[in-house]
Amino acid sequence: MAWLVLPTLVVAGAVLVLMNWPAPADVDVSTVATSLQFRSRGTDRQVLLEPTSARWLALKGFDEIRLTPTAVLIADQTKHDFEHDTYPASAWSPLPLGEVLALHPAGRTEAAVTIRPIGKENGSLTLGPIVVGSADITLRSPEKGSLSVELRGQKMDGDVPLPEEFRIDADNCIRDGDLSAHSGSPMTFKILLGQKSRLLDYSSQRSGVRLAIGYAANRKESFLGKAGFAVDQVRFLDQGTTGQPESTLSGTGVIEYTHYPAATAVPLSGGDFLSLDDLKGFYLREIAPADDMNSLRVRMGGVVGKIRSGPVGSVTDRRLTNFDRLRQNPTLVTLFTVLGWVVPTLIAARKLYKELHEHSPSP
Q1: Residue 274 CB contacts under 8 Å (≥ 6 apart), including other chains
Q2: Of the residues 39, 141, 148, 226, which has the maximum number of CB atoms within 10 A of its CB?
């Protein structure tokens, strides 16, 4: 019997080891979140956001913005109607212009501008493609119908095609050629551009440049390019009011195993924690407005060395074990099925042979 017991113990031990040996998983993850943090993979530049239509655009943390207007009016801030965010006609006065209008931060304070189209082209604003190299990035839905992008770790340059007439609200800015004592105070400009100079150029030497847009109410398509965005780190965490980390998942989702469709998919719910580590060949494939426009619909996939999910206090390892992978390999399933038939048959044949040999008459 030893010839049968020993192999059985060896196989049972191997199965036990495989059942407790997690393996890297090739996953496809879909979820809904209010924000996500990620790091671009490698140093090659790749398109983060495709050209995006917007109702308004906000920029923070820049070193300079430049444009070439044909006319500029500046508003008297004492006549601002805060309730309706408007100015009477008497509040506007023309500025003498050089060739370029340039705004810079006033001292060490972070500068910010918000751009809104006005006039007959109200609502027509397009953010040009955002191309980044190695950077830490946060995408967030700060309010309904808006997307913010924070880039850290690299110099940022870009441009925005603008309509013919628009308004700029500037905070903590200084205008080239403005020697007044009020530099850095809130300023509001009404700007008219010619047909040949419709770009606003912006640049930053600082870490932490941020852009935000208000996108169209009927937008459903992804902000990312069709090729997706290669990453080596993704986080769905934010700091809560108590200072403790909180999950940013805000809706339902699912973890699926790409090469093992028979494996049970793992559901995700709002408030669940989702942790992914040791990423290889991992891409953000879709980031689009969620149905409520208060969150972002995210789809991503690739190989993860570690993946955990679940509610507070019940976060679980979601990797398949090596036994799961073997069990769902159709070739191996066929092999073990054959062995499951052959081995008992051989045992029965051997037993029958012995019995016949024992009961056969001696010569």
Answers
A1: 29, 31, 236, 247, 249, 268, 308, 309
A2: 141
